[in-house]
User: Fold this.
Amino acid sequence: MSISVKDIIGLKSTEAFVLIAGIKGLGNRVASAKILNGGLDFECKNKFVLAELTNEKSEQGVIIKKLIENGASGLAFRTENRNDVSQDIIEVAEKNSFPIFSFGEETSLENVIYQIMSRTMTDDYLSVTENTIEKMIETKLSTNEVIGITGSISTLLLKNAMVVYIKSIKEDTFLDVDKFIVTFNANEDMKDKAGLRRYKNGLMIMITKDNKEKRKYLITLDEIMSLCGIEEKKVVMSISNIHQTYEEINICFRESYYAYIVARADNLNKVFYEDIGVYKFLIPNAKSETQRNFMNEYLKFVLDNEELLETVIEFVRTGGNLQQTADRIFCHKNTVRYRINKLHEAVEPNGSSDMTFYENISAAVKIYLINQL
Assistant:
């Protein structure tokens, strides 16, 4: 897949790029990227070149003319003074529609290379876009639609699939998804095992095999994480069940994302869809009026009280364990018992068993947590 120079300057890593010359070349095709090293390797056809440019304007002219002659897509160089480029060079760039950018010390060459390569490398295994993933998660698709999407992904897909969604455990920290994808795609041994794609600042990993042995899928997942340098303790992992690839890949993506919602709601690092229980019903219906009314009925007495709300949330997260709840909110077990009993009396004044109350308050809290995400 190739992109244009204009696509490159829209990347996060190139935000500090300043166009000096060659605006008519922003549509130039970019198939790859390279750093121009001291050896002056000018093998750069359809490549976007990054360089630490010499201050000698005569040498600059030689370099830029060589890049143009060899079919480079454009050039970006590090400088604190855009006047380091002579007017003659600017005229050559304009004449040849050769875009030249400058950037300062704040720009990381490594990050620029990774992001350009991520955008340009052919991802034969998994070419679905974020919009396609969103559609598979949010929309009920016909079997033919799913088969059409799966068929467009790759001819390498095996019979069954599992999807794993990975995001940073810190919600204000983003994974270096572009770097992971480039690292993965550079490993030929992995191409027939899995595919990686960006989704909402996280990483979707699709693993396909001819068997349904969960253990083998997880072994492949460990291999991918090791290859990409992803530390399990620093991420949230949500894992789908195994389904037929061509007819049910949308279910894999949906289950993985639903498991992620549960991980965030219950403050967990690793969640399998098969273990999320009633969330399977609550998540797809979280915005329904019926569920919201139910939530408000049980939480109306605590929504405006931060202390009580924290108590009931942790009470549900611990499965109704009073001591664990007390430990989490740093108070006495009897204080938790008192608060929960008072809430029980308030929302179910006609009386109900502790089990029934817990089931109801648990569902209400889960609806609340889903809607906070």
Summary: Residues 122-126 have pLDDT under 50 and may be disordered. The CA atoms of residues 7 and 134 lie 23 Å apart.
